[in-house]
Amino acid sequence: MPATAAVVPNRNGASWLPGLLASVAAQTTPFAEVIVVDDASDDESLAWLAAHASHVRVVALPAQRRFAAAVNAGLAVVSPAVDAVALLNTDVELDPGWHAAMRAALDADPARGAVAGKLVTLADPGVVDDAGDILRRDGVCEQRGRGHRDDGRFDTPGPVFGPCAAAALYRRSALDAAGGLDERYGAYLEDVDLALRLGLAGWTGWYEPGAVARHAGGGSQAWLGAPVGALIARNTLVLVARFFPWRWAVPVLYRQCSWLVAAARRGPRPLAAHLRGVAAGLAAAPAAWRERRGLRARAVADVASVVADRPWRGPAAGGHPRGAA
Questions:
Q1: Mind listing the pLDDT tens digit for each residue in 44-57?
Q2: Which positions fall inside the Glycosyltransferase 2-like domain (predicted)?
């Protein structure tokens, strides 16, 4: 029988774990196993798990390794019988039918390597948080629907670049072949890198709106160690250096310039954080660049077929409505 493991990376998520694990236990289709990987938390996470979640397998890392490494530590101990893995952030609560709908979507096509559900905000479930990710050729990963009212526009299932790893389902064989998450990202864009590698390997992504999860969006803050803007600036440059062809240099440069101007307008501190991120990205880019030949040699699909030719400027490029998180 098909079996799914739920892997939950945790760093100081004691306040989130009760809601998440209660929603996991309430699934109409149970998970075969639930694994919480604690990334050297210094809150009450481990004590709470010991007292209230004896059914959960806990992997306690002795030193902090950050989000991507915590996920990989969980993947390493998933039982051999498991053929699909759900990645769940601590700040997520699943509707009871989430696993059943996600699993049905994955099983419907053996070419599907990952499934995205509909993420709505925990504070207001009438607002979309993410309806599947879309990677543009300027290096931006667009969270489709973010900040928009859940008014039916995002109720149609269909192909999507990849899922947000806050609540995503992956085929085990696809994850194993990809080697899990790239730990150099730490946090932010590690799921985008994975989706891109899966696409290059010939796997497809799918969006299933019937699988709804509520996302608070603050549970990953304990992993950051730097402003979000700095991490996104750094990791975008790593992603671009690793995968993007030279012919996409114009949209990438356009986006980098627009981000620089936007950071400057926000003030000296956001500008300094952004510049630190850019400097870190430029320092990491040469190593990422050297991996391109090997990645291309293993790919069965061209990057242009995985990263669709979408507008990268103007209203048609997407973006979040004013005031959205």
A1: 999 999 999 999 99
A2: 7-176
